Each structure stands twice: as C-alpha cells, then as structure tokens.
Sequence to fold (228 residues):
Amino acid sequence: MNKPIIVAITGASGSIYAVRLLEVLLAAGYDVHLTISESGRLVIEQELDINLDLDNFHQSNLLLGDGTDSSDSKLSMLRQTAGISSEDSNVLSVQIGSPGNIHYHHYKDYTAPIASGSFLTSGMVICPCSSGSLAGIVNSLSDNLIHRAAHVHLKEKRKLVVVPRETPLSSLQLDCMKRISDAGAIVLPACPGFYHDAKTIRDLIDFVVGRICDQFEIEHMLIRRWGS
Ligand SMILES: Cc1cc2nc3c(=O)[nH]c(=O)nc-3n(C[C@H](O)[C@H](O)[C@H](O)COP(=O)(O)O)c2cc1C
Fold:
C-alpha cells in the first residue's frame, strides 16, 4: 500500500494544476494530506471562482468532476475550455483498486501529523509554490504547516517537489530555487512543453501534472511520452 502524499497549495497562479493533481493522485489510490495557505485560498477564489472556508473545508468544493460546482463558475468554464469532463478521469495506465481519500489540515495547525517526521509519507508536492513559500522554506522559517512539512521532508531526505510559477525571475528567486534544489528538493516549474502536440489547455495542465506524477513513478497517460 502506498504511503500518503502531502499536497500544499500556496498563493502562486495556477491553482488548476493543484486541482488536477489531486484528482490524479486520488485516482492512483493515494491518500492525500492537503493543506492550503491563505494566499492559496485567495488565488483559488480569483482563478476558479471557488470560495473555500479554510476553517471548514469541504473537498467537494475543490475536486474536478464531482459536479458540485455551478455550471457558470470559472472552474466549470475552465474545465470546459480545458476539455476536462467528469467522465474524463481515466488518466492511469494501470488498474488501481480503490481511490484515495483527502485528509485536510489547516495551514496553521502544527498539531497535524504532517508536522512530524515520524508520520511516514511518499513525499510532498507544493503546487503551485509561491516565491513567498519558497523563500520561507529555504530560510527554515517554519512559519506555517506548509513550511514545517516541507522542512520535515528535507531533513528526513524524503521527496519534496516544488512547482514555482513566476516570470520573470529575480536573482533572489533563482537563488532560492538553487538552495532548495541543493537541499534535496526537486524544482519542477509550471512550464508546460509544447513538443507533445499540445492542442488544448488541458494538454498543458496535464503536461505539468504528468511530470509531477513521474516523480512518484505513478503510471499515467496524462501525456504522450516522447519516443512512444
Ligand atoms: C491572484 C494572485 C496571483 C498571484 N500569483 C503569484 C505567482 O504566480 N507567483 C508568486 O510567487 N506569487 C504570486 N502571488 C503573490 C502571493 O500570493 C503572495 O506573495 C503571498 O504572500 C504568498 O503567500 P503563501 O506563500 O503563504 O501562499 C499572487 C497573488 C495573487 C492575489
């Protein structure tokens, strides 16, 4: 049985990547420990038209394909534009038993299991990862549960994938990326490629999510692999 994966959503643009990632990880049978920063919540509201209550979180508000979002919401329109429908969650190349579950933790809850190295995981993904969170982790601030859990993954030498989204990049941000990479994290910028015959927004989203899943050796069909 797979150990859970931690997903943290912070306040960089690209919250749709996180929504798609959640859907794929659950479909792959992973339990996901999810936490969302306050700025992550704001960006989700701005980009997807979803008002999340971080003190009273309901996963049905965030997940793709559950049919609970209103048809004129930004998420719904983005799904349509991207070509992601409720029937379209068959993204795995191997048969998986039962889907995973989401365990939500408030980003200020240091009593959450993911704040401790004794809680075993398959790794952690920060998607999207703001420059603020990146700097906080690099400087070991442990200012919130996201920084703390990331720090735990670095100190325990477990997989930490950060998905920054910013352009252009200052030398300070580049320095943070180098430092977190030197500390063992994988820096996987939200930079979709176009060489795989991308035609829709969904192809671009799935490119980034597919490359994240590759880090966890999840067998997926999100992208057509070069040479296949
Ligand atoms: C709509 C919106 C989009 C943003 N996009 C980005 C972005 O792409 N990259 C980034 O580093 N910060 C971005 N920010 C700024 C961060 O949200 C801000 O620096 C925040 O303090 C990050 O906090 P967090 O790391 O705790 O989530 C954005 C903010 C808003 C409101």
